[in-house]
Amino acid sequence: MSVNVTKAYLPPLEEYVGYLEGIWERGWLTNNGPLVQRLEAELSSYLGNSLVQFTSNGTIALQIAIKALELSGEIITTPFSYVATTTAILWENCEPLFVDIEDRTFCIDAAKIEAAITPRTTGILATHVYGYPCDVLAIEDIARRHNLKVIYDGAHAFGVQVHGRSLLSYGDLTTCSFHATKLFHTVEGGAIIMQDKALARKVWLYKSFGHIGDEYFSLGVNGKNSEFHAAMGLCNLPRVESFIVARRQLAELYRQELAGLPLQFPQPHEPSLAYNYAYFPVLFENEEAMHRVKDALGAEEVNTRRYFFPSLNKLPYHTGAACPVSEDASVRVLSLPFYQDLNPDDVRRICTLIKKALS
């Protein structure tokens, strides 16, 4: 029987249908409907009263964030992330300036950021990789001293807390993806999280064509999301903590079963971290070993993903400076099947196949 690398949680159908009946009764499908407003309010509460704008996806959230902060010229960013982080910068006619990553968290190396800043640098866009936090305090200090704006790509970081608060509350803006593959999902969707009310209004206008009724205030795009997607979010949000508990147990089982093998796992620096167990990545000794395991698992219908590959400074349409740590990690990393409904017997079978492939 095949095993997916991720699997979207679907709530009881009757629960979702209950929301659909309300949508049918109201006839209000999109354009800031009551379910969207309710989801934003519940997300705000969950995230410690941050200001939340629900968007159509995580990529448009990144693009709107860059535009709302009026970034131009160079944006310092990570080469170890999903491609949307880089392409959002390029889409907004800015220049990605790659800074290499740490070899423990695989997040951007804050100690290398300052040396990369030039007179053309206006911002930092960093990713909380696999939900492990960037060095948010060091980055905040660098940004303050150099008058830079900070955006975090928190696509993996929903439910994570650090220094006693939501990881998504750091930076000038944090974006999030609520794609079906994520810990918390709305089928398709995303969000922009911030603390400043004036900035939140600007973001709202940017995602809503820049106007309210017949009054036009700014440029804008269609970054809105629908009542149907909000309904899925309202079903799933109360279950997030139980998802995290189940994932923690599976992660512990994986680590127990893989103990003693020549594998590397991400290691956070921050002792106050409350983690969400978003993914289960492993790094092999070399690319050949990674392929050997990937092929062996694939032959048994166990799906894996090279997440992230390639190192983004090696993209064919935009290359950047050498980032040896990222380039090395990107060819050795493999994300194993991981979701709260994964059968523990499948975890044991996967680990047995890995042991066999590496023996």
Automatic annotation (TrEMBL):
Pfam families assigned: DegT_DnrJ_EryC1
The protein's name in its UniProt record: DegT/DnrJ/EryC1/StrS family aminotransferase
Any single GO BP term: polysaccharide biosynthetic process
PANTHER family with a match to the protein in the record: PROTEIN RV3402C, TRANSAMINASE
Modified residues (N6-(pyridoxal phosphate)lysine): 182
Family per similarity comment: Belongs to the DegT/DnrJ/EryC1 family.
UniProt-listed Gene3D superfamilies: Type I PLP-dependent aspartate aminotransferase-like (Major domain)
Species of provenance: Hymenobacter cyanobacteriorum
One MF annotation (Gene Ontology) recorded for this entry: transaminase activity
Keywords of the record: Aminotransferase, Pyridoxal phosphate, Transferase
Active site: 182
